[in-house]
Amino acid sequence: LLAANILSNSGWAFVSPILAIYVVNNIEGGTIQVIGICYFIYWMVKSILQLFISRSLDSVKGEGDDYVVLLLGQFFDVLVPLGFLFAHTPAELYLIYLIYGIGDALYVPPWNAIFTRHVDPERVSSQWSLDSTGFGFGAALAVVIGSSLAVALGFRTVFILVAAAEIIALVIISKMRPYFAGKEKKPIKYLFPLQK
Predict the structure, then answer these.
(1) Which string of DSSP letters, residue by residue, matches 115-180?
(2) pLDDT tens for the chain, residues 1 to 196
């Protein structure tokens, strides 16, 4: 689960810091404002949808629903870098960011829920920091590699690398099915309960 999340998030670091340059130079009518609208669409869609998705996931007893929604979200995230390969107009970018928002709204709640339920209650901080640290190291490398490749080989190569990272993460998640099929959601036992 950690490997898939680190790979997926680090994959985006290949392109995120340089995406505005791509849009301004390669998208017909692409401006900084277009990028702002893209991120507005992404954050609004993700923020609104994940509230409903998380409530729906919490209402089901087994972990199978979390797994299926996580897998679906990762599939949507695979489509996004592939969409960049074919985008030519701001409207197409808006559609890509709509898909990206849907994908992350599907991905984030079940990932957080699954990870939280299976975290060692005596090592909560260190296990959560593994995800953050892994992403940090992966992102640091991806930013340097992605920007260098964009200069040397062009943005298409970078989008293909992001898509490859997302596909590998999808394959990793798809191999995890036996761990979730037919499993019940276990209540979390906290070391410091909020209630007595």
Answers:
(1) HHHHS-TTSHHHHHHHHHHHHHHHHHHHHHHHHHHHHHH-HHHHHHHHHHHHHHHHHHHHTTHHHH
(2) 878 888 787 778 888 888 899 999 999 999 999 999 999 999 999 999 999 999 999 888 878 888 899 999 999 999 999 999 999 999 999 999 999 999 999 999 998 888 888 787 788 788 888 878 888 888 888 889 888 988 899 999 999 999 999 999 999 999 988 877 766 666 555 554 555 4
